[in-house]
Write a structure and sequence with these properties.
The chain is an all-alpha fold. The chain has 2 domains: 226 residues, Growth Hormone, Chain: A, CATH 1.20.1250.20; 209 residues, Growth Hormone, Chain: A, CATH 1.20.1250. It is built from 22 helices and 2 strands. Strands 1-2 form a two-stranded antiparallel sheet. The longest helix has 32 residues. The chain is globular.
Length: 476
């Protein structure tokens, strides 16, 4: 080890570790959004089974991974404590891999291929739930891993990169779905009758889920070469290993200082979750609830269907890819402005922008406007989410809770987030079939309520240390 290395640590070593960790965020986005390209073929496939597959069942099937997300997020704290952060991510990689294979070929061992039945639908949902558990784990453990491995002066930036990776994963799968679909058309299901899109009905949706296998395998292999976090190693009394990793990242002297702080921190008492009153918990939970109640995942998961319904050609996949590019751009806007503008202004502006976009979509349907106007309105709605509620909600949930209750409180808030994600996503197909005007007006109303909630109840945390935020809640 060179003198310079001992003094300052290795940025390359840190970068390589973080890049592996945020691959988990990419898979989070990839797995949750892969359904956007596959769901129409999937609906047509199971509708042909003649066992009563309808919009209700399709909403449940298209959103079944979210059941696993709830389970994974609830168990994430226990798993990360028992297995460690690194092994938790390895488990998530394995679950992603098995889910991709199972969703590609749900008939494995027990069913005849290509014959849709109720039992096969349940088997498919089981494999998607497995992947959802991986997503729930990754959603909690990836930011935790990055935060515990990163130097304090760049921790916020590196953790924010995980949110960027989630959105990038969505863009990647939009593009992959677009390439898989190629010149084939999506099927149409009207009153239980399937027409067109034979290849997508029989085969296309399978390849979309199979594509998840390759990045999952890469993630699992790369995790063989990254270390456990110094904080977790200190918690299990492996101080020498903890110091060795800290030294490579921060340099020798800084590593000694950080290890002493870590050892003091892990010995702090853990307080009851209501020690600071109910207000902070209610705010944290409502941040998660509103992030989903404003309806964004109904757009992300069903984007091609929405774009096709407003009159675009090609099954809506190209417009979905375009939306993914816009989403990436506006996520970068949030990352580079959150410390300058603040959390509250971004959330309020984003809520208002989303409300306007949703109302424009509703108005377009009401007045029969098709083509460019509703497409742009959907993209505007999504873009304002990406510059506000997408990344900023995660930032606030990570920092708003007092130190001694953060673990329990974050797990509770994230669980509520996935529950409401499931509620919104599973009800969207039936709601949209009932009335696009009503569904988007409902989401617009939620956006306005979200803006009022942030304005009245959410404290600004810009520029405050975690200890200052803790003191704020002690004084309430």
């Amino acid at each position: 080890m060179t003198t310079s290395y001992k003094e300052k640590g290795s940025p390359l070593y840190l970068t390589s570790i973080v890049l592996v960790a945020i691959l988990g965020g990419l898979l989070f986005g990839y797995d949750t959004a892969v359904i956007s390209g596959a769901e129409k073929g999937l609906e047509a496939f199971f509708t042909q089974g003649g066992f009563g597959y309808n919009k209700f069942w399709h909403g449940i099937t298209a959103s079944s991974a979210l059941i696993g997300c709830v389970i994974g997020s609830i168990l994430s704290g226990l798993i990360a404590t028992r297995l460690g952060r690194r092994n938790s991510l390895r488990l998530a990689a394995l679950l992603f891999f098995l889910s991709g294979l199972g969703a590609f070929h749900p008939e494995f061992l027990f069913f005849e291929k290509g014959v849709p039945t109720m039992d096969l639908m349940l088997a498919f949902n089981f494999y998607r739930i497995i992947g959802g558990i991986g997503v729930g784990l990754a959603s909690a453990v990836c930011p935790m891993y990055i935060a515990e491995i990163s130097p304090s002066h760049i921790r916020g930036t590196l953790v924010s990169c995980n949110q960027f990776a989630i959105i990038f994963g969505m863009l990647v799968v939009y593009f992959v779905n677009y390439m898989i679909m190629g010149s084939h058309e999506n099927p149409s299901v009207v009153n239980g009758v399937v027409s067109g899109g034979e290849w997508m009905t029989s085969t296309g949706w399978r390849y979309m889920f199979l594509s998840l296998v390759f990045p999952s395998a890469l993630f699992g292999v790369l995790l063989l070469f990254v270390p456990e976090t110094p904080r977790y190693l200190a918690m299990i009394q492996q101080d020498e290993k903890s110091f060795s990793i800290l030294e490579k990242i921060n340099g020798t002297e800084k590593a000694k200082e950080i290890l002493e702080e870590i050892k003091a921190t892990v010995q702090e008492k853990t307080e009851k979750i209501l020690t600071y009153g109910a207000t902070v918990l209610v705010i944290g939970i409502l941040l998660s609830v509103f992030q989903q109640a404003i309806g964004i995942n109904a757009v992300l998961y069903y984007a091609p269907r929405i774009f096709e319904s407003v009159g675009v050609n090609g099954g809506g996949m190209f417009q979905t890819v375009l939306m993914g590019i816009v989403n990436i751009t506006f996520t970068l806007v949030a990352i580079f402005t959150v410390e300058k503008v603040g959390r509250k202004p971004l959330l309020i502006v984003g809520s208002i922008g989303m409300a306007l976009g949703a109302m424009a979509v509703a108005a377009s349907d009401y007045f029969g406007i098709r083509g460019v106007v509703p497409v742009v309105s959907v993209i505007v709605y999504s873009a304002f989410f990406m510059m506000s509620w997408g990344p900023i909600c995660w930032v606030l949930i990570a920092e708003i809770f007092p130190n001694t209750i953060r673990g329990k409180a974050v797990a509770l808030a994230v669980a509520f987030q996935w529950v409401f994600n499931y509620i919104v996503s599973s009800t969207f197909p039936a709601l949209y079939e009932f009335s696009p005007v009503f569904s988007y007006s409902l989401y617009a109303s939620m956006c306005i309520l979200a803006a009022l909630f942030v304005w009245k109840m959410v404290p600004e945390t810009k520029g405050k240390t975690l200890e200052e935020i803790t003191q704020f809640w002690k004084k309430r």
